[in-house]
Each structure stands twice: as C-alpha cells, then as structure tokens.
Write a structure and sequence with these properties.
Helix content: over 70%
Radius of gyration: 19 Å
Shape: elongated
Strand content: under 5%
Order of helices and strands: HHHHHH
Number of domains: 1
C-alpha cells in the first residue's frame, strides 16, 4: 500500500505534467506559428498557469488528506527525509544546469543577432521567463520522479 507522502508525490507529479503540458502546448503553438511572444502575453499565461496549478494541487491534496487522515498527520521518518533530500539534490542539478544553459544561450543570442527563420531559432529566441519556467518544471518533475523511484525501489 502506498504511504500518504508517496500518494502526494504522485498527485504532484500528475498535476505538474498536466499543467506543464497545457502550458507547453500554448507556447509551442505560438512559436511554431512564427509569432513572437510578448512580455504581457507571457506574464498573463504564466499567471493563469500558476493559479490553476495551485488550485489543482490544493484540491487534490485536501481530498488525499481527507482519505488518509492518519497518514497526513504523521511525522516524516528518516527514510522519507532521505528520499526527499535525494530528490531535491537531483532536482538542484537539473535546475542549475538548465539556468546556466539558458543564460549562456541568451548571451549567444545577443551577440550573434539571430534571425527567426526556423522553428529551432524561434525556441532560442523565446523570452527568458518562458525558458526559466520550463526549466523549473523539469527540475520539479525530476524531483518527483527521483523520490518515487526511491520509494518504489527502497521500500
């Protein structure tokens, strides 16, 4: 049987994948169409995505806690703390490498004066906040997956 924390990880991973997929679909459509994404449109999309994400997470975790009240109130044991630490450590590396790559790409874009002639270049020229949010989501998914892997293999 799954522990409360493992169920919580599955809920968070599922919500993150669904919301990130919807976000990526909107961005992908705009970039493939050759439209540049304005800062206002980008901020609006990010705000809507964050609000929907918070609402989904809160509702699903309330339902999960109501279903398993004893597990929700329980203390995190040493094993679970180790899993969380390992997942966070792995996600940190994904986030760090992604942010450094994003900054390097922006510097290269600035000095090469790229033209938007292909879909790949459209991705490269996407606003920095879109890239950083994507990197953040990838690191979070990596954290959830790492923790779930440890729960499944070490339990």
């Amino acid at each position: 049987m799954l522990s409360f924390r493992e169920k919580s990880l599955w809920v968070s991973l599922l919500a993150t994948v669904i919301i990130a997929s919807l976000y990526a679909d909107n961005i992908y459509d705009a970039l493939v169409a050759g439209k540049s994404v304005s800062a206002q449109a980008s901020a609006s999309l990010i705000l809507r995505v964050v609000i929907v994400f918070v609402i989904i997470e809160v509702i699903l975790h309330i339902a999960l806690a109501m279903d398993d009240q004893r597990g929700a109130a329980g203390q995190e044991d040493e094993r679970e703390r180790g899993y969380r630490l390992a997942g966070t450590n792995a996600a940190y590396w994904v986030l760090s490498i992604g942010v450094i790559s994003c900054v390097v790409q922006q510097v290269i874009n600035h000095y090469t004066h790229m033209e938007s002639s292909s879909a790949f270049i459209q991705y490269a020229l996407a606003p920095m906040e879109l890239k950083l949010l994507t990197i953040f989501w990838l690191s979070e998914m990596f954290r959830f997956i790492t923790e779930l892997y440890l729960y499944r293999t070490q339990s």
